[in-house]
C-alpha cells in the first residue's frame, strides 16, 4: 500500500478533562493506529460500546478535533496541517454523515439551499443548470430527485428520507470516503436496512470507502468488510469482519460477540461486559489493557503496559495473550 493510496491513523492519543473543572485528564483515545487502503472499495466498521471513543476518532479523521499525540495522513498528507486549497480538497474527498438527520438540517431553512451552498462553496460550480444537474444526480442515487425536495423544509420529510437527503448532500462533492457516525440508530428498524443498502451500493458503484460507526454488531456484520473493535479508548482488534466474527482473538471481542450471537437470553446475561457502568472511568485510567479488570486471562503485565499491535493470522490484535513476555 503506497502512502498516497491510504488513510493512515498513526499513534493517535486524545486527552479530555474530567472531575472538578476538568483539570484531571484521561485518554479518550490511547495510541490508536490503523491503515485503510483507499484503493479497495470497502466498509470499515468502527464498533464499541458507548464512550469507547468512536465519535472522537471520527472527528479527528474529519479534522474537527486535533489529537494531543499522533497524526492522521490522507493520501500522504497530514490532515491537521492542510490549509487553503488543500483543506478544501480534503473537504471534498472526505464527507461526514451524522447520526441525527433532524440535527443536520436547520428546521427554518429549505433543504435545497444546503445543496446549492455546498455546490457553490465546496465544489465550486456557479452555473445554475450545471449545479441542478449535479444535485439531481446525487439525490437520484438515494432514490429521490431535485423536484421532490425543491422548496421544502426538513419537517416535510420522514427521518428515513432526511437521512437519505444527508447522504445525497455528502455525495455532491464526489467524495472518496464517507464517515458515517451511527447513521441508522435514530431510525425505525424498518427503515434501517434501506439506508444500509444505499451505503453498500455506494461502496460498490462509486468505489467508496466508508467508515461506519455503530454499536450494533448484527448490522455491522451485514454491512462491513472490516471491523475495528474499540474498548475504553483503545483499539483491541482490527481485521476482516468474517475472520473476527468466526474466531475473535481479543477476550473483549469474544465476550462482545458471544453476548449478541447467543440466542439464549439467560446465557447472554452472563456477559455483563458490554453494559456501560460506573466503573468506566476507572477502566479508562488503567495504564495497560483497559479490559484487564474484566479479563479472565489478565496477568500482571496487562495491568501496566498497553500491548502493542500484533498480527495474528491476518487480524491485528492488542493482547498480551499473543505476545512473548520478553518483548515487554
Ligand atoms: N469534548 C469533550 N470533552 C470531554 N470529554 C469528552 C468530550 N468528547 C467526548 N468526551 C469523552 O470521551 C469519551 C469518548 O467519547 P465518544 O463520544 O468518542 O464515544 P463514543 O464511542 O462515540 O460513544 P457513543 O457510542 O455513546 O456515541 C467519553 O468518555 C466522553 O464522555
Ligand atoms: Mg458517538
UniProtKB/TrEMBL annotation:
Keywords: ATP-binding, Nucleotide-binding, Transport. Coiled coil: none annotated. It comes from the Archaea. One of its GO terms (molecular function) is ATP binding. InterPro entries: AAA+_ATPase, ABC_transporter-like_ATP-bd, ABC_transporter-like_CS, Oligopep_ABC_C, P-loop_NTPase, Sigma_54_int_dom_ATP-bd_1. Residues 7-257 form the ABC transporter domain. SMART domains: AAA. PROSITE patterns: ABC_TRANSPORTER_1, ABC_TRANSPORTER_2, SIGMA54_INTERACT_1. PANTHER family: ABC-TYPE DIPEPTIDE/OLIGOPEPTIDE TRANSPORT SYSTEM, ATPASE COMPONENT (PTHR43230), ABC-TYPE DIPEPTIDE_OLIGOPEPTIDE TRANSPORT SYSTEM, ATPASE COMPONENT (PTHR43230:SF3). This is ABC transporter ATP-binding protein.
